[in-house]
Structure to design on (577 residues):
């Protein structure tokens, strides 16, 4: 579904993603993790088409990403940014309707029945159906995060990229988010999610990618990609006898 | 069409008719109505069809253009204080018109004034958009607007000094205060193409403006090209502001008040705000123009002055409220 070959991205003259290669198939649910500043968000932005690719090749659904225009790309890949500004005090359902810009760039009330059903469905999946009709800026941080998630899920794109979607969510909603994403993957979507919670990643994702200083340093099943060696070398943590992680020498 | 648009449209139509029935010439209501229907004596028909109606239509068209331009600029800059007048776009547009008039370009073509006004508006809008794209915040943009307005005023004075055939100072004052008195259908026909194209450009940008609410990057990832939206709004608002200045001089604050009042009625959606803002601003100028004809002043008040008398305090009120929510 999505494949990356030798991807390098620079920001302000500094290489932040260096020679990253991986491929994700349809129905795959993968976590991308790594210490702060490892280049995870930038790699995701390059996949979403909002960061300039310096070197390497991205293919989306067997088509070179460079050959797709913005609309065609948006039909295939949907991206949830780490910072999510909302300029006006929009209604919740109008924020979600923006997720279907490629299909019908209309406000919720002006969408067709299909569009409205997609928005309603996405709100329900994000456990935000009860927020419909409310003003966005009057919501709590966690509620806003769920509306953004609904915005992403409302997209018809077969590939979903999420940058720290768990931030601001309570534990129950973090679990329900992971379950929702697993269900999306089971339905055939490709899901790549940037996570800092290694436990959550190991529990729900069959595959974990680890980045460090711009490079992909581990890629595989959770047990392998998050081995004691990787935990110690990349994250500087160790697993104690009780299974909990604690800070240790790198 | 939404119910809000329908209601505002009906009010506008009713006020256009009212405006035709009000004026300094002593014409009875019955005669006016007869003349509106195309009957009665020729003099009354001329007063209604050639003096009052074009004036009313000009007031509405200029107001609608400023309302649409204001709503479009606010959506683009994501700032409820944006408006052609406040940001110096109208002043630059007036500068363009003044240059065209005082250097005798009107002799070359009757389109000289509208084209020069639109170019002037374009210069200011491009400067503002460049600042906005480089991350200038609300305060910076407003300060740039103040600078642009002052600078345009100075350049207008300079143009007056250097003009080969200086007209009277009152002509300049007319441009800076704004009025729709004595406008003919010909004036409107001249402005119509720019108004129509400008309105179309801003309306086409509507969905892009809503997507832009989520920030440039997310909008781009959704297939809503932010650069295209920016170009459409800048081009459209330049045409609208330029054509309105060419028709009526500079009239400030209308473009601020209309979107601000209507925003809660459209769920704060920058797209659905566009058409109602245009209608509402048109209504505001129509009412203001009726009021200055009815009010018993020795000399008729200028429309721009009347608009600023209402709009100025509203602007200060919005700015004060914004300040409170930021602190």
């Amino acid at each position: 579904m999505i494949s990356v070959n030798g991807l390098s991205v620079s920001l302000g003259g500094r290489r932040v993603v260096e020679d990253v290669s991986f491929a994700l198939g349809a129905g795959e649910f993968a976590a991308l993790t790594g210490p702060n500043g490892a280049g995870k968000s930038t790699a995701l932005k390059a996949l979403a088409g909002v960061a300039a690719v310096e070197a390497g090749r991205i293919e989306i659904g067997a088509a070179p990403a460079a050959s797709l225009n913005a609309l065609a790309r948006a039909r295939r890949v949907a991206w949830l940014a780490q910072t999510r500004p909302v300029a006006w005090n929009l209604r919740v359902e109008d924020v979600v309707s923006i997720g279907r810009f490629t299909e019908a760039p209309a406000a919720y009330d002006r969408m067709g029945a299909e569009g409205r059903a997609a928005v309603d469905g996405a709100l329900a999946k994000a456990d935000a159906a009860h927020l419909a009709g409310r003003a966005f800026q009057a919501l709590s941080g966690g509620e806003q995060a769920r509306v953004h998630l609904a915005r992403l899920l409302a997209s018809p794109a077969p590939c979903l990229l999420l940058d720290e979607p768990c931030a601001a969510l309570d534990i129950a909603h973090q679990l329900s988010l992971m379950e929702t994403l697993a269900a999306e993957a089971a339905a055939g979507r490709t899901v790549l999610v940037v996570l800092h919670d290694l436990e959550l990643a190991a529990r729900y994702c069959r595959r974990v990618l680890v980045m460090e200083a711009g490079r992909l340093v581990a890629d595989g099943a959770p047990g392998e990609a998050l081995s004691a060696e990787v935990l110690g070398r990349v994250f500087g943590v160790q697993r104690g006898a009780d299974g909990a992680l604690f800070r240790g020498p790198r | 069409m939404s119910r809000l648009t329908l209601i505002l449209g009906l009010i506008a139509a009713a006020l256009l008719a009212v405006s035709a029935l009000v004026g300094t010439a002593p014409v009875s209501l019955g005669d006016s109505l007869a003349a509106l229907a195309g009957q009665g004596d020729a003099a009354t028909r001329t007063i209604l069809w050639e003096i009052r109606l074009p004036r009313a239509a000009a007031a509405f068209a200029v107001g609608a253009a400023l309302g649409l331009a204001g709503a479009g600029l606010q959506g683009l800059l994501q700032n409820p204080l944006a408006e052609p007048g406040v940001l110096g776009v109208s002043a630059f547009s007036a500068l363009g018109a003044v240059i065209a008039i005082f250097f005798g370009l009107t002799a070359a073509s009757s389109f000289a004034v509208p084209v020069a006004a639109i170019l002037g508006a374009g210069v200011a809008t491009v400067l503002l958009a460049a600042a906005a794209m480089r991350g200038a915040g609300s305060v910076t943009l407003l300060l740039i607007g103040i600078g642009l307005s002052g600078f345009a005023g100075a350049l207008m004075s300079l143009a007056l000094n250097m003009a080969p055939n200086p007209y009277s100072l009152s002509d300049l004052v007319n441009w800076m205060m704004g009025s729709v008195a004595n406008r003919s259908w010909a004036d409107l026909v001249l402005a119509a193409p720019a108004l129509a194209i400008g309105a179309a450009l801003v309306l086409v940008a509507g969905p892009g403006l809503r997507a832009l609410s989520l920030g440039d990057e997310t909008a781009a990832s959704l297939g809503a090209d932010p650069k295209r939206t920016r170009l459409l709004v800048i081009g459209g608002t330049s045409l609208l502001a330029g054509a309105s200045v060419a028709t009526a001089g500079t009239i400030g604050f209308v473009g601020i008040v209309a979107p601000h009042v209507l925003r809660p009625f459209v769920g704060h959606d920058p797209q659905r705000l566009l058409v109602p803002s245009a209608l509402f601003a048109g209504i505001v100028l129509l009412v203001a123009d009726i009021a200055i004809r009815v009010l018993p002043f020795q000399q008729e008040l200028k429309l721009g002055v009347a608009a600023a008398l209402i709009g100025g305090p509203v602007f200060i009120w919005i700015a004060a409220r914004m300040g409170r929510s930021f602190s």
